[in-house]
Automatic annotation (TrEMBL):
The keyword Cytoplasm applies. One of its GO terms (cellular component) is cytoplasm. It comes from Liquorilactobacillus mali KCTC 3596 = DSM 20444. Belongs to the pyrroline-5-carboxylate reductase family. The keyword NADP applies. This is Pyrroline-5-carboxylate reductase. Its EC number is 1.5.1.2. It catalyses: L-proline + NAD(+) = (S)-1-pyrroline-5-carboxylate + NADH + 2 H(+); L-proline + NADP(+) = (S)-1-pyrroline-5-carboxylate + NADPH + 2 H(+).
Length: 266
């Protein structure tokens, strides 16, 4: 099986790295092309993936084509590949805000098997979260096989298209917010005498372990908060100080802003 990437930005590279790490694909089974020749040719030389001379060439040679481009250029890319895209090719789009119906309209066909996904950058280390939805042209067998490919990159979840915007906020954009939180924790450690490296390691491991405990357990996150907060203890003092500064409200406002921005691209 050969898979082609049209667009070789950070997310595409993260997916490719995840697959190569898990040996889901060999470098020679991955085809790439983008509008930036220096970028994709240099990337191909570095990783061993195959650089194609055009978007159409990617489609002609690949069994699965992943459209890893910005929403505003998706229509022009589909114009380039429409004539060489048949019902035997599986199209996977991760263009934010562009629905399956819009993609079918651009292809001028509802018979092109199309899956819409939304991954996050943690697929690079096989700890990603990817949303899935398909059109009626995708068979159960093809859908299952494709989902398995992304299961190797972390977790997957099938959700309705109407929920993709909130998924973007909770999974797609949130790594940046979590990195920011870790950095804020680390800077507090520096304030009290730790090196930035030490403080970052401590903070990142605390976030990692806490997330794993949430996923592995049966309690709600708030119940787990209560477990850590001893009466009259240090944790409840810190938690109340964060809440006084607007911690939860700031998080919700950040998610709201992300959802509104994503919806504005529709």
């Amino acid at each position: 099986m050969k898979i082609g990437f049209i667009g070789v930005g950070n997310m595409a590279k993260s997916i490719i790295t995840g697959w190569l790490t898990k040996k889901v694909f060999e470098p020679g089974d991955i085809l790439v092309h983008s509008a930036h020749r220096n970028n994709y040719e240099e990337y191909a030389q570095k990783t061993g993936v195959i650089a194609c001379t055009s978007n159409a060439a990617v489609v002609e040679k690949a069994d699965i084509v992943l459209l890893a481009v910005k929403p505003f250029v998706l229509a022009s890319v589909i114009d380039e590949i429409r004539d060489v895209t048949t019902g035997k090719k599986l199209i996977i789009s991760m263009a934010s805000g562009v629905s399956l119906e819009e993609i079918a309209t651009q292809f001028k066909s509802k018979k092109i098997p199309t899956i819409r996904i939304m991954p996050n950058v943690n697929v690079e280390i096989n700890e990603g979260m990817t949303a899935f939805v398909r059109n009626d042209a995708v068979s159960d067998i093809i859908y299952g096989q494709t989902k398995s490919l992304f299961d190797s990159l972390g977790r997957t979840l099938e959700i309705p298209e109407k929920d993709f915007s909130i998924f973007v906020a909770l999974a797609g954009s949130s790594p940046a917010y979590i990195y920011y939180f870790i950095d804020a924790m680390a800077r507090s450690g520096v304030k009290y005498g730790l090196t930035k490296k030490q403080a970052t390691e401590i903070s990142a491991q605390a976030v990692l372990g806490s997330a794993q405990k949430v996923l592995a357990g049966t309690k709600s996150p708030m119940d787990m908060v209560d477990d850590v907060c001893s009466p009259g203890g240090t944790t409840i003092a810190g938690l109340l100080a964060m809440e006084e500064a607007g911690f939860m409200t700031a998080v919700v406002k950040g998610i709201d802003a992300t959802v509104l921005k994503d919806q504005a691209t529709h």
